[in-house]
Amino acid sequence: MATRTEPSYCRMCFNACAMLVDFEGDEPVAVRGDKENPVYQGFFCVKGQQLLHARSHPGRLLRSQKRRADGSFEAISSRQAFDEIAERLGELRAKYGPRSIATYSGTFSTANPASGTLLTAWMKAIGSRMAFNSNTIDQPGKALGQALHGMWMAPPQDFATADVALLIGINPLVAMSGGVPQGNPGRFLSDALARGMQLVAIDPRRSETARRATLHLQPVPGEDAAILASMLHVILREGLHDADFCAEHVNGLDALRAAVAAYAPERVAARTGLAADEIVRAARVFGGAKRGVATAGTGPNMSGHGTLLEYLVLCLNTVCGRWLREGERVANPGCVVPTFSAKAQATGPWPGWGFGEKLRVRGFTNTAAGMPTTTLADEILLEGDGQVRALINLGGNPVAAWPDQRKTIAAMEKLDLLVQIDIKMSATAKLAHYVVAPKHSIEMPGVTINQDYLSLYGVGFGYPAPYGQYTPALVDPPEGADVVEEWEFFYETAKRMGLALELQQMALIGPAKGAPIPLDMERKPTSEDIYAILMRDARVPFDELRKHRHGAVFPDPPVFVAPKDAGWEGRLEVGAAPMMEALAELADAPVASGDPADLPLRLISRRMMTAYNSSSRDLPALRAKYAYNPAFMHPDEMARLGLEPGEVVAIHSEHASILGVVEPDASVREGLVSMSHSFGDLPERDGDVRAIGSNTGRLTSVERDYDRFSGLPRMSNIPIRIERVEGGRRAS
Ligand SMILES: Nc1nc2c(c(=O)[nH]1)N[C@H]1C(S)=C(S)[C@@H](COP(=O)(O)OP(=O)(O)OC[C@H]3O[C@@H](n4cnc5c(=O)[nH]c(N)nc54)[C@H](O)[C@@H]3O)O[C@H]1N2
Ligand SMILES: Nc1nc2c(c(=O)[nH]1)N[C@H]1C(S)=C(S)[C@@H](COP(=O)(O)OP(=O)(O)OC[C@H]3O[C@@H](n4cnc5c(=O)[nH]c(N)nc54)[C@H](O)[C@@H]3O)O[C@H]1N2
Ligand code: SF4
Ligand SMILES: [Mo]
User: Fold this and answer.
1) CA distances from 325 to 60, 450, 460 (A)
2) Could you identify the atom of ligand 3 that is nearest to the CA of residue 47?
3) Which of 58, 162, 452, 505 has the highest CB neighbour number within 10 Å of its CB?
């Protein structure tokens, strides 16, 4: 019998579902969705239900670890770890300069907003600009496309009032990451369909979301830019665009019109695997609707032309005028961030790349999406001036997630100092000199600041309303544990290195505003102290938010889109030269035309409900159906290749090979293998494929076939061949 129930929110993924935690005495015994919550309405997924098991999992690190000379690990106090790491960092910085120290933040760097904030402050104090994050191996085209296109200074039309949603390779019913507003995606989608919204899905797989579509286009992968260019061709040819909006706010329409002239549906149909009529219908449904929103996800972003793809998504939204206008109410003006003041005008474009730190490989620089993570392994391996010698990984798992696993491993092994902040001995942790053991989420406070900034990430992301939630820490760490909040690593090592940290508030648009706030390096702050600093200009003050422990929507005062400033000249750009050139090149060259002939299949990425990248998949209940990441194929294709369900096969790309377990799935287009990433472990465990799955990242090279703007190589739409292996069939 529960003796009390505490509200909080789940941090097993970025969706931050409001939850209730039942206690027996001081022990949390059950978690569930909070039905009273206005945004989540009780939604809670299978991963969230395992939250307490993640906390008590035998593989969870309760003490930090130090690697011994023989490769084994010994427990070490966090204080000792900080002493030794700070000393080592100090030496490397003195000897090789600040650039020799790099950081990488992955998905769990966002669970507690204090983590990333302190990391940024720490790097500034060190004097290194080599701070990388997972955004550049995700959908960097979003930020680059936005830079080339400029930004409407009010939100896009919202999903709740859209007559059409165009979802391109994004699966919100599983990923809960854009396409449908943040919160309860299934409910929001059902409500929209019930009121008559058209849902156009473009996905080579009949995904969970595509199954609900009113129109599903199931093309070959990688041709999304051609499909969108073709839709633009139809929209402009048939005059379905918003000519008045374009006349007042848009540059480059003639250039765009000329560039998409080569993309008549009749001409591109064959290469996309679609009928010309399907493209025409999609264009008419999107262009003909009054209000709408187009959003792309990871699939097409990773399939060959991510930057161009995202740019064309913005062009579609813009030529159809899918932005809020003067006088309209802003559904979500921000909650725990500064008010999003909205104006019916556009910024012009800004630089997408070519500024900041210069990388020593492939001519890359810092980008609007951040430092290109696809260069970091080479920056570690390439000797000479500026070489990276120390890497701090905050809640990311390079060995599991980066493209080119073998190169990544070589890089991790080359480092003089690898520090992994991780809740378990992940593949990267196994190569680290130190593994810093963090608190589990319910042992930490939290506030939904990172979630609130999501609406700036791209069209179709973020909360549907000004929603926020704060949670205190609900429980102490297990007895005998020596665990820290991630940000404490940065505070404690900075202090030992004699560095002072200053917190800079994130800005809604453009460079951070306001003077940086120095942290007291003598009296250690709490997470709440840090949140108070981050929320100092928030629309809803921290003290007010704290009164609403169940999370709440703060609609008042309402925010309306203000008129355009007198004399304002900024315009959105739909004819950016690099993109028009890319369109011209692509017109005659389908993505697959460069693929080797002996690799007839393509491996496409997907997410599974039971895993979160490399996290969660070790929890028993989530392994019940598949302990591995199946290589899903159409059953007819399996029959043709003589493959049995559950059979282990070799998957070869031009670059490398992995093992995979094939399973039938009629929702996958023939010619494709659909597989989740970040499974498996270090290559020496390849033989355990049925127990741990395999790493699709190994199949990709960062040096070939990459998006020349962002550096992102093909991490979906990878040319492969499948081969039967001896003893691959299940023993009968
Ligand atoms: N081929 C291919 N590759 C891909 C993708 C793809 O679709 N296909 N997707 C890409 C994308 S979108 C992304 S974002 C990246 C992900 O890249 P990463 O963020 O680098 O990878 P994750 O596996 O999410 O790493 C999360 C790490 O956090 C640890 N962790 C779990 N819980 C906690 C906690 O409570 N605290 C702390 N401190 N750590 C914790 C996990 O053990 C794990 O080591 O992968 C990319 N790689
Ligand atoms: N359960 C769960 N949720 C997650 C994650 C997880 O690992 N598990 N990861 C989180 C992360 S880091 C992110 S970035 C988000 C990502 O969220 P999403 O972008 O929605 O990612 P996916 O669910 O993989 O959906 C991508 C879809 O693209 C399709 N696809 C593959 N290649 C192509 C292509 O070339 N063209 C087109 N049109 N479609 C293609 C796939 O079939 C798949 O349905 O999800 C987040 N949420
Ligand atoms: S979607 Fe699932 S894992 Fe993500 S926050 Fe919600 S309950 Fe937790
Ligand atoms: Mo991601």
Assistant:
1) 50, 27, 17
2) 3
3) 452
